[in-house]
Amino acid sequence: MSDYRYPEKPRIAVGAVVIHQNRVLLVQRGKAPAKGEWSIPGGSVELGETLRQAVEREIFEETGIKIRAGDIIHTFESIHHDPNGRVEFHYVILDYSAQYLSGNPVPQDDVLAARWISPRNSGKLHLNPNTVKLLKKINFLV
């Protein structure tokens, strides 16, 4: 078990909504708890790192895209229990708006795929439910 599974306390995580040329940057998750689902890129905050530093680092680590973090636009909790009822994962997630600076999406770190997705093509993907809520909240999806 990694220290991400069966935590003693919730972990803080960040994500970024990066829109470039009317397309949003999405990744297909390669690990639990959202393995196989498409979501905005992001990950855990490291000790001593600011939230903005964490989101900029995570987006680069997962996709190779450089961004500048903006403001928090969405927050939520992700709590997953195992079949015995134990908390297997618990994240408090802060999603930021972000300005695209440079790069082309290349899947790295713990993602299976990374792509720019238009609203028209988003329905072809298995989107994470929290990502759907977020993209609707910012009027990217209808």
List the helices and strands and how they pair.
Blueprint: E1 11-20, E2 23-29, E3 38-39, E4 42-44, H1 51-63, E5 66-81, E6 87-102, E7 111-117, H2 129-137
Parallel strand pairs: 1-6
Antiparallel strand pairs: 1-2, 1-4, 2-3, 2-7, 5-6
Keywords:
142 residues; alpha+beta; Nucleoside Triphosphate Pyrophosphohydrolase; 2 helices
- Assign the CATH superfamily: Nucleoside Triphosphate Pyrophosphohydrolase
Highest CATH level, the class: Alpha Beta
Percent of residues in beta strands = 35-45%
Distance between the termini: 39 Å
Return Rg in Å. Answer: 14 Å
Q: Name the average pLDDT.
A: 93
Structural class comes to alpha+beta
Percent helix: 10-25%
CATH architecture title: Alpha-Beta Complex
Which runs of at least 5 residues are low in confidence (pLDDT < 50)? none
- Count the helices. How many? 2
Annotated CATH topology = Nucleoside Triphosphate Pyrophosphohydrolase
Total of domains: 1
The string of secondary-structure elements, in order, is EEEEHEEEH
Structure commentary:
This protein has 142 residues and is an alpha+beta fold. The protein has one domain (11-137): Nucleoside Triphosphate Pyrophosphohydrolase. It is 15% helix and 43% strand. It has helices spanning 51-63, 129-137; strands at residues 11-20, 23-29, 38-39, 42-44, 66-81, 87-102, 111-117. Strands 1, 2, 3, 4, 5, 6 and 7 form a seven-stranded mixed β-sheet that branches. The longest helix is centred in the middle third of the chain and has 13 residues, at 51-63. The chain is globular, with a radius of gyration of 14 Å. It starts with 10 loop residues before the first strand and ends in a 5-residue tail after the last helix.
